Amino acid sequence: MNILVINCGSSSLKYQLIDMDKKEVLAKGLAERIGIEGGRVKYEAAGKDEIVIEEMLADHKAALKIVLDSLKHEDYGAVKSLDEIDAVGHRVVHGGEAFAESVVIDEKVMQAINDNVEIAPLHNPPNIIGIEACKEIMGDVPMVAVFDTAFHQSIPELNYIYALPYEYYENYKVRRYGFHGTSHQYITERAAEMLDKDLNEVNLITCHLGNGSSISAVKGGKCFDTSMGFTPLEGLAMGTRSGDLDPAIIPFIMDKEKLSTEEMNNVLNKKSGVLGVSGVSSDFRDLEEAAEKGNDRAQLALDIFENRVRKYIGAYLTEMDHCDGIIFTAGVGENSITTRERVVDGLKSLGVEIDKEKNNMRGKEAVVSTDASSIPVLVIPTNEELKIAMETAKLV
């Protein structure tokens, strides 16, 4: 079975075509700058050179058409005909309370995704556009929605209800939803396999650390708590997002700086985090380089990020009777040797120890803790596309 995985952003479209029988990527790429000047589609079939098609991409449908034409191209295609694509799996960011698992897309599902646009105005509209473009071009090919929020729907009320007037939850569904769920679920399942544990019994702390970061407490293979909340702004200090802060700061700054709600939201989402503290970059590699050269604010930004990660790990350890593993994944978690080392070094009082020699690697599955460590520490590269394809194949 061949599954096409689609991940639509506001001006981009990431894709992979995966042979599920062999678990092999047949082709992958990215369409970017959709709807603006300088549009292009990157396409790479397995074992072949990357092709870059530079063309004005009027909308997602135009981008998808180029992607599909590339997949069946006579010279560099991955399939001879689109008939060889058995189903399409779509990443959808927000499923709200409507979806606790992936679903085959029909009219009712589309309506529910539309209903959640109000609480995910930046994320769900592009996802809807991608689904509609696929329907228009590919006709009756089965399609599945895989939700970033679904894995977190097992969180109990004590962790998803905010201490606000309860009618705000009843009337507007203001609650913790959590994000990066596809990644957290994938590494949970892989960690259970690596640790030789029953998925229904494994307790983990999963750390998805990248430009956007979140940590989850997994109890009995299900999410019990997570750091992101009503939106992806809550939790850790991130690349450009503030993470946790005193909410009274928001009206205070708005008053002092004469900012509108939209402008304040932009500050919190795009000008804060390690970028705001450092004044250097939202890229952790740039921060590490600047810190090595003596930039105190870059070092402070890294210190804040790592300390916040430790705080969440410590808090989540208290929510479980035991922990079978602490998992690092995503761009920073998989590739930053120093971040992993500094985070785990701060957990020595809990008996958690990192092995510097084992930890001296990037982007590979590995146990990086010492044999004496009270809790194993693992690095597991995430594979959201494969997880989406697996969910799609299971349903169709």
TrEMBL record:
Residues annotated to bind substrate: R91
Pathway(s) the chain acts in: Metabolic intermediate biosynthesis; acetyl-CoA biosynthesis; acetyl-CoA from acetate: step 1/2
Alphabetized GO MF terms: acetate kinase activity; ATP binding; magnesium ion binding
Main subcellular localisation: cytoplasm
A single GO cellular-component term on record: cytoplasm
NCBIfam families in UniProt: ackA (TIGR00016)
Stated name of the protein: Acetate kinase
Source organism: Aedoeadaptatus nemausensis
Designated gene of the protein: ackA
